[in-house]
């Protein structure tokens, strides 16, 4: 096992070296944008403030969130930048991609972040926490942004040409488990479906959503698998034995991820003019090396989010988790590296 792990990290390290040399070469250039714009669909892992003005417990525009982010709390569910913030920089986009809730007509040309905490593939997912923007609604919001982009550019064909060259990142599904399937007191999905059937139902819906994105002109699409949801501190703390991950949840996540891999291959086959890239977010590079602390950095409230009145850890770079559910900035940074290296290898960028 040790040898296998070392071999894997060796592979990752060489890819990272390649990535940093590419980045260095880009620093002095003028217009080294790898893509003209970057659109983000997702949940709290990459939300950058879309929930701030919604009626929901799933919002974090308060301290200590953002303690390592110069503007302070923004609604990002971590201490600093998220994976898509790092990725935007690596792509050569100089500003942060703005949340849909505040992006102006000029900013939408660089892309938009539609992600919303608590949201899922299914519209009903996350409802027990309050308002949120489901993936279906995020796609509707994208449709309205396309109209705005066409207006700003003033030429439909030019706008459509630009949209085909942009990068699109989609990461959904964690909440369909954490805030739906595994909350039997509120949702009946686990009574209606076994884990396989539920994963099938999610994939059926996800297939339609990814096709909608394709129909809106996306041609470079990164699809993120979900992480080990049974290992997040909040889930472990309510399971009775915090020293162990919850196997049933990790197994469900694996079933889902397997189907997402299958789906991206199918879609790739069926549409020849698009590139799909699946990213494994249960990679050991994200979960193991260097992290000595498996507990959350801040003290959390009953929702698993940081309690503003409580102290937090000082060594944020040795913690995998910032709060009860979400990773620290350093894990986000590693995730961005993995996506960037894979996107280059797959010639998406
Ligand atoms: C639960 O299932 C019933 C019957 O299938 C349905 O009418 C109801 O809307 C469901 N409730 C929720 C919260 O999904
Ligand atoms: C791909 O195309 C085949 C043949 O037309 C179809 O049966 C299948 O459902 C398509 N797959 C997806 C994911 O759309």
Please supply descriptive tags for the structure shown above.
four-stranded parallel beta sheet; single chain; two-stranded parallel sheet; globular; binds 2-acetamido-2-deoxy-beta-D-glucopyranose; alpha/beta; 349 residues
Describe this structure in words.
42% of the residues lie in helices and 8% in strands. It has helices at residues 2-27, 83-90, 135-153, 156-165, 174-181, 189-192, 195-215, 233-238, 247-270, 284-287, 329-345; strands at 38-42, 167-171, 220-224, 275-279, 293-296, 319-321. Helix 1 packs across helix 11. The radius of gyration is 19 Å and the shape is globular. The two termini are 34 Å apart. Residues 1-30 have low confidence and may be disordered. Bound molecules: 2-acetamido-2-deoxy-beta-D-glucopyranose (2 copies). One 2-acetamido-2-deoxy-beta-D-glucopyranose (NAG) is lined by residues 207, 263, 266-267, 270.
SSE pattern: HEHHHEHHHEHHEHEEH
The hetero compounds bound to this protein are: 2-acetamido-2-deoxy-beta-D-glucopyranose
Number of helices: 11
Total number of β-strand segments?
A: 6
Q: Strand share of the residues?
A: 5-15%
Globular, elongated, flat, extended or rod-shaped: what is the shape? globular
Structural class: alpha/beta
Show the helix and strand layout.
Layout: H1 2-27, E1 38-42, H2 83-90, H3 135-153, H4 156-165, E2 167-171, H5 174-181, H6 189-192, H7 195-215, E3 220-224, H8 233-238, H9 247-270, E4 275-279, H10 284-287, E5 293-296, E6 319-321, H11 329-345
Parallel strand pairs: 1-2, 2-3, 3-4, 5-6
Helix pairs in contact: 1-11, 2-11, 3-4, 7-9
The protein binds 2-acetamido-2-deoxy-beta-D-glucopyranose (2 copies).
């Amino acid at each position: 096992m040790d040898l296998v792990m070392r071999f894997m990290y060796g592979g990752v390290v060489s890819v990272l070296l390649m990535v940093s040399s590419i980045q260095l070469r880009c620093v002095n250039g003028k217009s080294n944008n790898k893509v003209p714009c970057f659109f983000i669909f997702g949940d709290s892992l990459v939300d950058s403030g879309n929930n701030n003005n919604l009626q929901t417990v799933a919002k974090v525009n308060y301290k200590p969130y953002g303690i390592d982010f110069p503007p302070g709390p923004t609604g990002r569910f971590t201490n600093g930048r998220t994976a898509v913030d790092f990725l935007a920089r690596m792509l050569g986009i100089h500003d942060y991609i703005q949340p849909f809730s505040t992006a102006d007509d000029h900013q939408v040309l660089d892309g938009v972040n539609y992600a919303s905490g608590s949201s899922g593939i299914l519209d009903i997912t996350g409802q027990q926490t309050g308002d949120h923007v489901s993936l279906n609604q995020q796609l509707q919001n994208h449709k309205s942004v396309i109209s705005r982009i066409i207006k700003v550019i003033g030429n439909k064909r030019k706008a459509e040409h630009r949209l085909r060259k942009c990068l699109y990142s989609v990461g959904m599904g964690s909440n369909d488990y954490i805030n739906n399937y595994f909350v039997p007191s509120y949702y009946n999905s686990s009574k209606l479906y076994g884990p396989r059937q539920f994963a099938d139902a999610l994939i059926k819906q996800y297939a339609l959503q990814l096709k909608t994105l394709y129909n809106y002109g996306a041609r470079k699409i990164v699809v993120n698998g979900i992480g080990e949801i049974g290992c997040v501190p909040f889930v472990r703390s309510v399971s009775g034995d915090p020293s162990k991950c919850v196997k049933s949840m990790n197994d469900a996540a694996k079933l889902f991820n397997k189907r997402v891999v299958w789906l991206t291959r199918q879609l790739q086959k069926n549409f020849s003019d698009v590139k799909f890239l699946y990213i494994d977010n249960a990679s050991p590079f994200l979960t193991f090396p260097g992290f000595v602390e498996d507990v959350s950095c801040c003290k959390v409230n009953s929702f698993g989010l940081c309690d503003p009145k409580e102290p937090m850890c000082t060594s944020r770079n040795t913690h995998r988790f910032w709060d009860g559910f979400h990773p620290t900035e350093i894990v986000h940074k590693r995730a961005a590296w993995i996506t960037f290296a894979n996107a280059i290898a797959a010639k998406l960028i």
